[in-house]
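Revision sheet: structure tokens.
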Amino acid sequence: MGAHSAAIHAHWAVIESREVVMTLELIPLDKHWARQIAAEGDDSLRASCANYDDVAEFLGESVDAHIALYEETNAVAPWIAYLARTPHAREFVGICSFKGARRDGKVEIAYFTFPPYRGQRHGGAMAAQLVDLALHYPDVAEVIVHTRPEENESVRILRGLGFTRAGEVYDSEDGTVWRWSLQRDASPHMRSAVSKALAALAMFA
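Predicted:
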């Protein structure tokens, strides 16, 4: 294996939730790899999934968006983006990320299912696995998500994971959005509650 291949291979560490029914492989997309993909393309990315041609456009847009995010936040692992891949079919189905490092005990997450794979519970799986990852860090007291101010699939997912609506805020890009919060100390059994919600993801179509 050459030095280039070895460097790329290092990115393919897999984070899996032990509790979620539909487990996705979350493949770290740090700023160095994102910049490399944008500048040179990446044959290993194509070789590591069965649907590259179907999602290349969405991958490209996602990589560009996260390069811009990293320029703003300078985030490092684990507070970065992750490509979501199905473990058996080896298909890229979406991308999820922390929108920066934890601050004052809070982290914000976001997730995006590629259009051809919507309605298959992937959004819920990505959200659940990021919550699970965040709560492994004792100094994370709250996980935050922002959504459009309407009842939609993402809102149903968040409620199922135990999030509660914490008002409205104004976003410079999206306008008025709903703020959702999952507090670690909302219950002495919060991790148990999250685990149960993870196991219930199959109810979200």
